[in-house]
Design brief:
Outer Surface Protein A, domain 3, rRNA binding, 2 helices, 185 residues, Ribosomal protein L6, 2 domains, 37% strand, elongated
Length: 185
Protein backbone atom coordinates (compact mmCIF):
# COMPACT_ATOMS: atom_id res chain seq x y z
CA UNK A 1 0.00 0.00 0.00
CA UNK A 2 1.27 3.46 -0.87
CA UNK A 3 1.84 5.94 1.93
CA UNK A 4 1.42 9.10 -0.17
CA UNK A 5 -1.93 9.90 1.45
CA UNK A 6 -0.51 9.86 4.98
CA UNK A 7 1.97 12.70 4.31
CA UNK A 8 0.97 16.12 5.63
CA UNK A 9 0.61 19.04 3.22
CA UNK A 10 2.29 22.26 4.33
CA UNK A 11 0.16 25.36 3.72
CA UNK A 12 2.19 28.48 2.78
CA UNK A 13 1.46 31.76 4.58
CA UNK A 14 -0.03 33.43 1.48
CA UNK A 15 -2.58 30.62 0.91
CA UNK A 16 -5.93 30.26 2.65
CA UNK A 17 -7.82 26.97 2.76
CA UNK A 18 -11.59 26.79 3.32
CA UNK A 19 -13.19 23.46 4.20
CA UNK A 20 -16.92 23.14 3.67
CA UNK A 21 -19.05 19.99 3.96
CA UNK A 22 -17.85 18.15 0.82
CA UNK A 23 -15.59 20.74 -0.85
CA UNK A 24 -12.14 22.19 -0.24
CA UNK A 25 -11.43 25.70 -1.58
CA UNK A 26 -7.92 27.11 -1.87
CA UNK A 27 -7.16 30.77 -2.59
CA UNK A 28 -3.82 32.48 -2.99
CA UNK A 29 -2.03 35.30 -4.77
CA UNK A 30 -2.69 33.87 -8.25
CA UNK A 31 -6.34 32.84 -7.90
CA UNK A 32 -8.87 30.40 -6.44
CA UNK A 33 -9.44 26.67 -6.95
CA UNK A 34 -11.95 24.25 -5.43
CA UNK A 35 -12.34 20.47 -5.35
CA UNK A 36 -15.34 18.37 -4.31
CA UNK A 37 -14.46 15.25 -2.33
CA UNK A 38 -16.16 12.26 -0.73
CA UNK A 39 -15.23 9.39 1.61
CA UNK A 40 -12.29 11.32 3.12
CA UNK A 41 -11.86 13.81 5.95
CA UNK A 42 -9.63 16.88 5.68
CA UNK A 43 -8.41 18.73 8.79
CA UNK A 44 -6.16 21.75 9.31
CA UNK A 45 -3.48 21.27 11.98
CA UNK A 46 -1.27 24.04 13.40
CA UNK A 47 2.24 23.59 14.77
CA UNK A 48 3.46 27.01 15.89
CA UNK A 49 3.52 29.29 12.85
CA UNK A 50 3.16 26.43 10.36
CA UNK A 51 -0.16 25.06 9.14
CA UNK A 52 -0.67 21.58 7.71
CA UNK A 53 -3.50 19.75 5.96
CA UNK A 54 -4.15 16.22 7.16
CA UNK A 55 -6.17 13.95 4.86
CA UNK A 56 -7.58 10.65 6.13
CA UNK A 57 -10.00 8.08 4.67
CA UNK A 58 -13.34 7.61 6.40
CA UNK A 59 -13.99 4.08 7.67
CA UNK A 60 -17.78 4.06 7.75
CA UNK A 61 -20.23 2.15 5.63
CA UNK A 62 -19.75 -1.04 3.76
CA UNK A 63 -16.50 -2.82 2.98
CA UNK A 64 -16.77 -1.62 -0.62
CA UNK A 65 -17.03 2.05 0.47
CA UNK A 66 -14.01 1.64 2.77
CA UNK A 67 -11.97 0.18 -0.08
CA UNK A 68 -12.98 3.10 -2.32
CA UNK A 69 -11.94 5.68 0.26
CA UNK A 70 -8.53 4.02 0.72
CA UNK A 71 -8.00 3.87 -3.06
CA UNK A 72 -8.76 7.57 -3.49
CA UNK A 73 -6.82 8.72 -0.41
CA UNK A 74 -3.49 9.39 -2.14
CA UNK A 75 -5.21 10.83 -5.21
CA UNK A 76 -7.12 13.45 -3.21
CA UNK A 77 -3.97 14.34 -1.27
CA UNK A 78 -2.03 14.92 -4.50
CA UNK A 79 -4.87 16.94 -6.05
CA UNK A 80 -5.09 19.22 -2.99
CA UNK A 81 -1.30 19.66 -2.92
CA UNK A 82 -1.33 20.59 -6.63
CA UNK A 83 -4.06 23.15 -5.91
CA UNK A 84 -2.00 24.73 -3.11
CA UNK A 85 1.13 24.91 -5.29
CA UNK A 86 -0.91 26.28 -8.20
CA UNK A 87 -2.45 29.23 -6.34
CA UNK A 88 0.88 30.12 -4.70
CA UNK A 89 3.45 29.56 -7.50
CA UNK A 90 1.53 28.52 -10.62
CA UNK A 91 2.42 25.98 -13.28
CA UNK A 92 4.02 26.38 -16.67
CA UNK A 93 4.75 24.14 -19.64
CA UNK A 94 6.98 25.10 -22.56
CA UNK A 95 6.61 23.77 -26.10
CA UNK A 96 9.07 24.26 -28.94
CA UNK A 97 8.37 24.11 -32.66
CA UNK A 98 11.08 22.30 -34.61
CA UNK A 99 10.98 22.57 -38.40
CA UNK A 100 11.61 24.95 -41.28
CA UNK A 101 8.99 27.71 -41.25
CA UNK A 102 7.23 26.46 -38.10
CA UNK A 103 5.81 29.47 -36.25
CA UNK A 104 3.27 30.31 -33.57
CA UNK A 105 1.25 33.49 -33.00
CA UNK A 106 -1.27 34.34 -30.29
CA UNK A 107 -4.11 36.85 -30.71
CA UNK A 108 -7.59 37.11 -29.20
CA UNK A 109 -7.50 33.80 -27.27
CA UNK A 110 -6.53 31.93 -30.45
CA UNK A 111 -3.19 30.26 -31.05
CA UNK A 112 -2.28 30.26 -34.75
CA UNK A 113 0.23 27.56 -35.68
CA UNK A 114 2.08 27.24 -38.98
CA UNK A 115 3.41 23.71 -38.73
CA UNK A 116 3.86 22.40 -42.27
CA UNK A 117 0.22 21.96 -43.30
CA UNK A 118 -1.34 23.84 -46.22
CA UNK A 119 -3.59 25.75 -43.80
CA UNK A 120 -2.88 27.37 -40.44
CA UNK A 121 -3.86 25.30 -37.41
CA UNK A 122 -6.08 27.23 -34.95
CA UNK A 123 -6.39 26.35 -31.26
CA UNK A 124 -8.80 28.18 -28.94
CA UNK A 125 -7.30 28.92 -25.49
CA UNK A 126 -9.62 28.99 -22.46
CA UNK A 127 -9.62 32.02 -20.17
CA UNK A 128 -7.97 30.28 -17.18
CA UNK A 129 -4.79 29.45 -19.13
CA UNK A 130 -2.33 32.07 -20.41
CA UNK A 131 -0.15 31.62 -23.50
CA UNK A 132 3.00 33.54 -24.40
CA UNK A 133 4.62 33.40 -27.85
CA UNK A 134 7.38 35.97 -27.40
CA UNK A 135 9.60 33.94 -29.74
CA UNK A 136 7.98 32.52 -32.85
CA UNK A 137 9.12 28.93 -32.19
CA UNK A 138 8.52 28.79 -28.39
CA UNK A 139 5.09 28.52 -26.72
CA UNK A 140 4.87 29.03 -22.93
CA UNK A 141 1.61 27.91 -21.30
CA UNK A 142 0.94 29.08 -17.71
CA UNK A 143 -1.91 28.76 -15.25
CA UNK A 144 -2.88 27.79 -11.71
CA UNK A 145 -4.53 24.44 -12.52
CA UNK A 146 -1.90 21.78 -13.26
CA UNK A 147 -4.35 19.51 -15.05
CA UNK A 148 -5.56 22.24 -17.43
CA UNK A 149 -2.04 23.50 -18.22
CA UNK A 150 -0.83 19.99 -19.06
CA UNK A 151 -4.01 19.19 -21.02
CA UNK A 152 -3.67 22.32 -23.19
CA UNK A 153 0.02 21.55 -23.80
CA UNK A 154 -0.79 17.96 -24.79
CA UNK A 155 -3.57 19.05 -27.17
CA UNK A 156 -1.29 21.61 -28.86
CA UNK A 157 1.47 18.99 -29.17
CA UNK A 158 -0.99 16.59 -30.85
CA UNK A 159 -1.56 19.10 -33.68
CA UNK A 160 1.88 18.10 -35.02
CA UNK A 161 3.57 15.34 -33.03
CA UNK A 162 7.34 15.01 -33.55
CA UNK A 163 8.01 12.57 -36.35
CA UNK A 164 10.64 9.87 -35.78
CA UNK A 165 12.87 10.41 -38.84
CA UNK A 166 13.82 14.09 -38.73
CA UNK A 167 12.31 15.10 -35.38
CA UNK A 168 10.16 17.86 -36.88
CA UNK A 169 7.02 18.83 -35.00
CA UNK A 170 5.86 20.29 -31.69
CA UNK A 171 7.62 18.93 -28.62
CA UNK A 172 8.03 19.75 -24.95
CA UNK A 173 11.13 21.76 -24.10
CA UNK A 174 13.90 19.29 -23.31
CA UNK A 175 12.00 16.29 -24.72
CA UNK A 176 14.31 13.81 -26.44
CA UNK A 177 13.00 12.17 -29.61
CA UNK A 178 14.75 8.95 -30.60
CA UNK A 179 15.29 9.17 -34.33
CA UNK A 180 14.92 6.14 -36.57
CA UNK A 181 17.44 5.30 -39.22
CA UNK A 182 16.28 5.87 -42.79
CA UNK A 183 16.25 3.32 -45.62
CA UNK A 184 19.57 1.83 -46.61
CA UNK A 185 20.49 1.04 -50.20
Amino acid sequence: MSHIGSKLIKIPANVSVDLSLQKVSVSGDLGNLSLPFSNISININSNGDERFLDIKPINTGTKKQNAESYRMWGTYRTLVENMILGVSKGYSKTLELIGVGYKAQYNNNTLILKVGYSIDMLYEISSDVKVDCSRSNIIVITGIDKQKVNQVAAEIRLLRKPEPYKGKGIRYLGEVIRLKEGKKK
